[in-house]
Design brief:
Elements (H helix, E strand, L loop, with lengths): L1 E3 L8 E7 L5 H8 L4 E2 L3 E10 L2 E15 L6 E16 L12 H4 L1 E4 L3 E3 L1 H11 L48
Parallel strand pairs: 6-7
Antiparallel strand pairs: 1-8, 2-4, 3-5, 4-5, 5-6
Length: about 180
C-alpha cells in the first residue's frame, strides 16, 4: 500500500487492506522454500498521523499459516499477528559514518520522494512472527529415535534408554584377570 506524504495530516487516519501473499516477495520466497504455507492473505490495519518532523504509523498485520512441527513433523495451523509502531523520517537511507542506534532509531524508517510504501514493513512484521522452530504444542513428544513413530499418538515400545556416548566404546569391554 502506498500513500502520498502530502495527504498525511496531523489528524490520524486509519486504513485497512488485504493483500495476497504474491504481493510480498519475501513471504512468497518463504512459501517457495517450504518453510510455511500461507492460508489467508495478509490483513493489515494502519493508522497514520503526522507528528513534528516524522510520520507515525501504528499498525497491525495478521494472517494464518500452515507450519510443519520441528519435533514430530506434523502439520498444524497457526495464526500470526503483529502490532507495530514505525516512525517515517525524510532522509537518506545510507550513512558514511558509524553511529550508535538509540531505541527510537530502531523503529525509524527513512523515506525519500512523495510516497510512503508500507508493504516492506508489513512484510517484515509477518516474517518476524514466523517461528524459528515451529512446535505443534509446547509438550510435543516428537518422533521415536529408534523407529520414527510419532510419540504424540502413542508409545511404540522401543528401548530408548539414554546411553552415555562418551564411554560407549567400552560398553562390551571385559577385563581378564
Amino acid at each position: 500500500m502506498k500513500l502520498r506524504v502530502d495527504h498525511i495530516k496531523e489528524q490520524a487516519k486509519t486504513f485497512s487492506l488485504e493483500e495476497p501473499i504474491a504481493g510480498f516477495p519475501a513471504l512468497s520466497a518463504a512459501e517457495q522454500a517450504e518453510e510455511c504455507r500461507f492460508l489467508t492473505p495478509v490483513k493489515s490495519e494502519i493508522t497514520v498521523v503526522r507528528e513534528f518532523d516524522h510520520i507515525r504509523v501504528d499498525g497491525r498485520a495478521e494472517t494464518s499459516v500452515m507450519l510443519k512441527c520441528s519435533r514430530c513433523l506434523g502439520e498444524y495451523e497457526q495464526s500470526l499477528s503483529s502490532h507495530f509502531t514505525l516512525f517515517y523520517t525524510k532522509g537518506v537511507v545510507g550513512q558514511e559514518e558509524e553511529v550508535e542506534l538509540g531505541e527510537h532509531d530502531l523503529v525509524s524508517v527513512p523515506y525519500q520522494g512523495d510516497e510512503l510504501d508500507f508493504a516492506p514493513e508489513i512484510e517484515e512484521q509477518v516474517l518476524m512472527e514466523l517461528p524459528l522452530k515451529p512446535l505443534c504444542k509446547d509438550d510435543c513428544q516428537g518422533l521415536c529415535t529408534v523407529c520414527g513413530t510419532n510419540l504424540n499418538l502413542g508409545m511404540c515400545g522401543c528401548d530408548r534408554t539414554p546411553s552415555n556416548f562418551k564411554l560407549s566404546a567400552l560398553k562390551n569391554f571385559k577385563a581378564d584377570k
